[in-house]
Write a structure and sequence with these properties.
two-stranded antiparallel ribbon; Polysaccharide deacetylase family protein; TIM Barrel; globular; DUF2334; Glyco_hydro/deAcase_b/a-brl
Length: about 250
């Protein structure tokens, strides 16, 4: 029976410093998806230590992946959050990420400049438009949301939805399935959520799954990712984010 539901899989934090882990995750995806129908979220200069602009060999590889059909999203600029937060943003910065919500506290002008710079750099490398913009840790402040409407991206997503960045129209709903490697407690909770999701999210018309380079450091995480992919490819067709705009 044809699978009308979609599985959108993505590899986050792609850059020169994560090359080996990214290749391992690509191999895992290909074993289950059967083709390069997934997305990569590219960081132009991860934490200021891995500038994509200077990494010629990695640029060549990135373009080859794009030529093979992998969608490329702009994923912040530094990925690191250096802002001072207050109120609800302070809670999100402390509990939803480990200092990586770069776009949570930026003003509109700064957010827009980083979005446009990232878009120009990555599009020049891959030779085609970027698929969209996804903020590090899926966290957007008011300035980032205002900037996103001006930056010229087609798509954006957060923890709970994918939307048209030009019109704010919601294109898919549901929690993204992801994993955490930075502490035992977070690893355990992410494994538990993935197990729950394998049973509870099958009815969704669109399931999203996101992995990170750090996931390759723990065998339990890799096993859970593999089991989750195996579960959803039975009911959902691996697709591209751009399909949501069709």
């Amino acid at each position: 029976m044809p699978r009308s539901k979609r599985l959108l899989a993505s590899i986050h934090d792609v850059g020169p410093g994560s090359f080996t882990a990214v290749e391992q995750l690509i191999d895992l995806f290909e074993q289950r998806l059967g083709e390069r129908r997934f997305a990569m979220l590219v960081v132009p200069d991860h934490w200021g230590n891995h500038p994509l602009r200077d990494a010629r060999a990695f640029q060549t590889r990135l373009r080859a992946w794009a030529d093979e059909g992998i969608e490329m999203f702009v994923h912040g600029w530094y990925h690191r959050d250096t802002a001072t937060h207050h109120g609800a943003a302070s809670f999100k910065a402390r509990h939803m990420t480990a200092g990586e919500g770069e776009f949570l506290g930026l003003d509109t002008a700064t957010a827009l400049q980083r979005m446009r710079d990232g878009k120009a750099l990555i599009e020049d490398i891959i030779g085609r438009p970027a698929a969209g913009f996804i903020a590090p840790a899926w966290l957007y402040g008011e300035g980032a949301m205002a900037a996103l409407r001006q930056a010229g991206f087609a798509l954006a997503e957060d923890h709970w939805k994918v939307w048209d960045a030009r019109t704010d129209a919601v294109l898919a709903k549901g929690p993204v399935i992801t994993w955490a490697s930075r502490s035992r407690a977070r690893t355990a909770s992410s494994l538990a959520f993935a197990a729950l999701a394998r049973g509870a999210l099958g009815a969704l018309p669109c399931v999203r799954l996101a992995v990170h380079p750090g996931d390759t450091t723990k065998a339990a995480l890799l096993a859970s990712i593999d089991a989750t992919l195996a579960r959803f490819v039975r009911s959902h067709r691996p697709g591209r984010y751009a399909d949501l705009l069709a």
